[in-house]
Amino acid sequence: MADILEKDAVMWEKIAGKIKSMNAQIGEKSPHVAGADGKYDDMRIDWWTSGFWPGMLWLAYDMTGDETFKKSAWEWDDRLERKMLEINSFDHDVGFQFLPTAVFKYMLTGDQDGRRKGLAAANFLAGRFNVNGRYIRAWNGDKHGWSIVDSAMNISLLFWAAEEVGDPRFSELAKLHADTIVDKFIREDGSVNHIVSFDPLTGEVIEVLGGQGEAPDSAWSRGAAWALYGMANTYRITKDNKYLKAAQRVAHFFIAHLPADRIPLWDFRTQGSPEQEPRDTSAGAIAASGLLELAALLPEHEARQYKTVAVEMLYALSDHCGTWDNSQHEAILREGTGHKPAGQNVNVSLIYGDYYFAEAFAKLNGWTRRIF
C-alpha cells in the first residue's frame, strides 16, 4: 500500500510540474485542442471548454499552495463575466465554465465576486430548464427541444447554488433534469444517448440522435463518462439511490467494454476495426475521475472494483499517451477524440482530458474538495 501511495504522489508531482510549464506556454490563451505540433489553440472565451484550463490552475494551487497558479487563475472569471455582458454564445455548459473558475475561486479564497458570478451563472442555467420535458436545453439556435448527456455534469452548478443560498429551486430543477438523464439518456444496458430531441411544447421525445457518437444506437464513450460521473455526483448530493444505481449501471458497461490496454475507444460500438479506430483519452480521464468519485461513496468492499479500474486507466493513459517525453508539448495527454463523425479533432490533445486526468490524481493524493 505504501508503494502505491508513493507512486501516486510521484505522479502528482509530475502533473504539477507539467501544469507549471503549461502555464508559461499557454499564458492567457483559452485552450481547447492541441494538434500534432503540441500547441494549444486559443478559442473564444464563451466556448464551452474555457473553464478547464483555469480549473487546472486552481487545482494546482489548492494542491501545492504555489501563488503563481493563483495569480494566473485569478482573472478568468472576470473575463467570463465581461463576455456575459456582450453578445455571446453561453449555453448549458456554463457549469463547465463557472464551476472551475468563479466557484472554485470562491471556495479557495472567499472571494465574494466569485460567489456572485457563480450564482449568476446558476440563474442563467436554471433559465434554460424546459418545464414540459423536464430537461435543460442544449446549445442555442433553433434546436429548442435538444438536450445532451453532457449536462449531467453541469447540474453541479445548480446543486452548489442551492446549498450556497438555501434556495431549493436550484436543486429541484437539477434533480428533475437528473431524472430525465436516468429515464431518457441512460439505456438499460448502461450505454447512453448523446442527444435526445424533445417536443419543447409537450415534452414528448421526438428522436434520439447520434451526436458525437457513431450512430443513434451506438455507445459514445465520452457520453458514458459524463453520465457515470454526473450521476455519481448527483447521488453524493441527494443520497437518492436511483442515481447511484444509474451511475453503477453506466460504470459496469464502461468497464466491460474497455480494451485490454484500458484506454477506451471513442465509441464502444463503432463498426470499424478496434485496432484501427481512434481512442479517446478524454473519455478515459473523465471516467476514471468518475469511478473514483463512485468508489468514495461506497463501502470498501464495493468500492474496490471501481478504484482498481480507475487506477489502471490512469496509469495506462500516462504510460501510453502522456507527453512526459516532450517538454515543449503544451498538453498532458495525446490521443483524444473530439467529434469523429464530423471529422473534427481526432487524435489530438483535449484540455478537458488534461483537467480530469489531473483531478483524478489529485483525488488519489487526498484532494477532497469537489467542484463538479
The helix/strand order is HEHHHHHEEEHHHEEHHHHEEH
Integer-rounded radius of gyration:
19 Å
- Poorly predicted parts: none
CATH architecture group name: Alpha/alpha barrel
Give the strand content: 5-15%
Structural class category: mainly alpha
Strand order of the largest sheet: 1-8-7
How many helical stretches?
14
Number of domains: 1
Largest sheet: 3 strands, antiparallel
CATH class descriptor: Mainly Alpha
Query: What is the rounded distance between the termini?
Result: 28 Å
Report on the architecture of this protein.
By secondary structure, the protein is mainly alpha-helical. The protein has a single domain, classed as Glycosyltransferase, CATH 1.50.10.10. The chain contains 14 helices and 8 strands. It has a 3-stranded antiparallel β-sheet with strand order 1-8-7. A hairpin with a 4-residue loop joins β7 and β8. The protein is globular and about 55 Å long. The two termini are 28 Å apart. The model has no long low-confidence stretch (mean pLDDT 97).
Summarize this structure as a short list of keywords or feature phrases.
single chain; 372 residues; mainly alpha; Glycosyltransferase; 3-stranded antiparallel beta sheet; 55% helix
List the helices and strands and how they pair.
Layout: H1 2-26, E1 33-34, H2 52-64, H3 67-73, H4 76-84, H5 94-109, H6 112-126, E2 129-130, E3 135-136, E4 146-148, H7 151-154, H8 156-165, H9 168-185, E5 195-198, E6 205-209, H10 221-238, H11 241-256, H12 281-296, H13 300-321, E7 336-339, E8 344-350, H14 351-364
Antiparallel strand pairs: 1-8, 2-3, 4-5, 5-6, 7-8
